[in-house]
Each structure stands twice: as structure tokens, then as C-alpha cells.
Amino acid sequence: MGLDFTVVPEHLDVILLGCLWTIFIAVAAALVSFFGGIIFAVIALYAPWIIRQPFRLIEWVFMGTPLLLQLFLIYFGLVQIGIDLPAFVAGIIGLGLHFAVYNSELIQTAILSVDKGQMEAARTVGLSRGQALRKVVIPQAVRDVIPPIGNNMIALLKDSALVSVIGVSELTLSAQRAIGATYRPFEFYLVAAAFYYVINLCMEWVQRRIERRIAISR
Amino acid sequence: MTDTEHFVEIKHAQKSFGKLEVLKDISLNVARGQIVAIIGPSGSGKSTLLRAINDLDALTGGEIWLDGVQVNRDLPYRQYEKHINQMRQDIGMVFQHFNLFPHMTARDNVTMAPKLLKGLSKAEADALAEEQLDKVGMLERIDYYPSQLSGGQKQRVAIARALAMKPKLMLFDEATSALDPELVDEVNQVMKKLAEEHMTMIIVTHEMDFAASVCDRVLFMDKGVVVEEGPPSVVFKNPTKDRTREFLRKHLAGAK
Ligand SMILES: Nc1ncnc2c1ncn2[C@@H]1O[C@H](COP(=O)(O)OP(=O)(O)OP(=O)(O)O)[C@@H](O)[C@H]1O
Ligand SMILES: [Mg+2]
Fold it and tell me: Rounded to two decimals, what is the model's pTM?
């Protein structure tokens, strides 16, 4: 039996809704991972030892264990200690923190490679170290790592399919539901793949725009 | 009460990096409105002395005073940070490599600190940026990023950035050394203009002609000590120390 895409339109609303969920979760998790990455990087580089240690533990957990396990831990594990998060929130936090750890590594290296004259110039006009980091060093560090952070965000988009395992009806799970109703796995997985591809293109487009805008200010 | 004769006072400045003693008991007074040039061979400690004045490099001994206030006061860490951030607002510094903020336009380079530290409104900040950039002849480039400017233009913006904090003292560390020769003059002109406005300045430089033309006093440093100091007419024309003579001879020969 060949491919038959005529079954698709009937289930397109489910797929589109799943697509919206995927976009929402990916964007929200990307924001968490971006700002979380900056915060983690600053803590790793500048916080006192006593604050650094718990964050090193978090970092170790998010880098050294599978994302799938992390999602289970946040969704099913936290309930046990009274934190009952909606599945999509757990998904956003899990994905966000997972990639925040990777972004933090990039941002730490970038902060350390900002020319030392920048911090000095900021200090000589009277900024405190914190102000100098916020206004001068971190913005430059972040600019320097937009391309690799962009790569992480594309990985994040793909890994967002994992939140289906905690029951969030994102694109992959929606495709599975459609397959359950039609027994047409090939068609619906291809449709889902096409949607991922389009979202991916959009993300690359946004990234290129950002890169072009900041090229002048480096 | 401010003592105009002892506007900037360096008392027995001593600085070591580990075992390396870079400044050995240096004392210096600069009167309000005076312009002092510091010359000397590479590694003699000129930059270190300049950087000690605003505590970028903390002294290991001695005191720095500006307008009756000790810069390197002995205070607990947090209080000292507050104190030094305040003091630095009064001390403008210009670097050899400009150190402009590349992610900000000329306007934002000039107004970032005043906005943050003095709470200027947007209108006040814009007026300040225009005033300071006009002074250094960079008003037309107010919305350019550093990457769009020549070295001389960058340095002029950097001077405007320092002036925007309305400092009492300006420090220049080889402000023109990184510039192509044809761009040196535009920066020197700006410094001359500041001199005419009686800005107190300490200038580390390798340009003897410029030093001779704007400075009230020249300090020749070697190996962490002040070997000779006096008016440019004496230090450049009739130095009393052999080491000064030697340095000037080599330097002038090298410059040709
Ligand atoms: N952060 C530092 N750590 C260790 N040694 C340093 C440091 N900064 C400067 N020095 C040393 O202190 C000495 C004086 O350096 P300084 O930069 O003050 O010289 P300078 O007179 O400005 O020289 P130049 O004309 O080359 O700029 C040099 O031997 C230098 O290697
Ligand atoms: Mg130097």
C-alpha cells in the first residue's frame, strides 16, 4: 500500500494545535535557557563558593543525565515533595534548564574572553563590578556566542519532542494521536517532520537577522 | 578647603607585582590646572603609576590624594568599593587602545555612565552627548558604532566619554601610540583644547614635541623611580641627569 496523504487534512487541526504547542514550549524554554544561561554563567564565575556549590550540582545533573530522566524527575518526582506542576510547565523548566547549562558553558567562556580593557574602562568611569558586567561585559559576551547558542536552540526544538512523554500534546504526540486514529504512521510522521523543518527554518531566519543586526556593534 | 597647590598628591607610592618592584617611593604633586607629562623607557612603571591614581592597580604602599580626599583609603571592602567608585567619577582615564564599548554608539558610550550613576534623563543625556562629542569634533558621528570609526575618531570619543563624568583630573596613557601617524594630531588638538580650559592632566607619552608644547612639567621615570623632573625647557633641553640625556638621545634617534 502506497502513501496516501488524503487522510491528513481531516486531522490537520490536531497537528496544527500540536505545532503551536511545540512553538510555545520551544520559545518559552529557549528564553529560560538564555536568561538561565546568563545567570548560571555569572554564578559560576563570580558567586561566592557557598552559592556556587548547589549550582554545580544542578549543572552536573542537567549535563550528566538524560533529558528524559530530567523531565520525569521534574514532573513526577517533584509531586512527591508537594510541587505539582502542569506538564507543559515541567517541560519548559526541564528543557530550559537543560539547555541553560549548555548555554552557560558558552557564555562563561565568552565572558572570560571579553577584552580586559572593557571592564577597566567601565570601572574608570565609576561603575561597580556588577554594573560593568551587566552593561558592558555580558552584552558583549552574549553577542559573541549568538551562533552557538542558536545551534543549541535548534537542538532544543528537536528535543522538545521529549515532553510528549509527560503528556504534553505537542507536535510529535499529536502526530501519534492522528496515527492512532488512522493507522497511517508514515504520512503523519512525515507531516510532523515537515512542520519541524519549517519551524527550524524560521529559527534560523531569526538567528541570521540577529547576527546581522549585531555585526556592526562588535 | 581645597589646596590648589596639592590638588593631586602622590605620597611615597610603592608598587610590587610579587617580587618585582615596579614603583619605588614615588612622590608627586600636581597643582589644579597643571599638566604633567610622564616620560621614560618601556617598563619603567609609567602606566602602573597612572593606573595607581585611580586604583586600577592598587598600590602596595603610599597614598594618593585628589582634591583633599584620599583615593586609596583604608576601608572595609564594601565601603571601599563605594568610595572608589565615587572617586573614579572624578578621574577620567584615556587608554592607548581606546577601550570604547563596541556594542554602543558614540552617544551611548558617552552617556551610559552618567545615566546610570547620575540618573540623567534621556533629554539631559542627549544634551550631554552632543556637548561632549561636539567638543572633540565628533558630533557628526554621534550615532556611529566604534567599528565604523577611525582610530583617531575612536580616541576622541573615548575622551568625550571620560569628560562626560565631569572629572577633576584626566589621565592619558599613551593616548596616541596606537594611532596611525596622520591621526595623531586630531587627538593632540583635543588634548590641547583641554589644556586651554585648564583641565588638570597627567599624560604618559612618547611624543616629546607634544609634551614640550602643552605641559607645565615633565617627569622622567626609569626603573620605578623619578630620575628627573622640571619644566620641559629644562628636562628636554638641558637635562641634568645622564640617564635622562641617554634616554632622550636614544628616543629622538629612534623617532627619526
Ligand atoms: N599586572 C602585572 N603583573 C605583573 N607585572 C606587571 C603587571 N603590570 C605591569 N607589570 C610590570 O611592571 C613593569 C612596569 O610596567 P608599566 O606598564 O608600568 O611600564 P610602562 O612604563 O608603562 O611601559 P610602556 O612604555 O611599555 O607602556 C614592567 O616590568 C611590567 O612587566
Ligand atoms: Mg605603559
Answer: 0.91
Q: Residues A86-99: pLDDT tens digits? A: 999 999 999 999 99
Q: What would the mean pLDDT of B146-170 be, rounded to a whole number?
A: 96
| Cα distance between residue B149 and residue B131, in whole Å | 19
Minimal CA–CA distance to B146: which of B135, B157, B162?
B157
**CA–CA separation, B27 and B10 (whole Å):** 5
Alpha-carbon gap, residue A139 to A106, rounded angstroms: 13
Other C-beta atoms closer than 10 Å to the C-beta of A79 total 12
Distance CA(B221)–CA(A124), nearest Å, equals 24
The shares of helix, strand and coil residues in chain B, as percent rounded to the nearest 5, are 45, 25, 35
Say how many Å lie between the CA of residue B129 and the centre of ligand 2: 29
- The total of other beta-carbon atoms located within 10 Å of residue B88's CB is 23
Whether the predicted interface score ipTM is above 0.95: no
Residue A117 DSSP SS3: helix
Identify which of B19, B22, B226 to mutate to test ligand 1's pocket (most ligand atoms within 8 A of the CB): B22
Interchain CB contact of B178 with A (< 8 Å): no
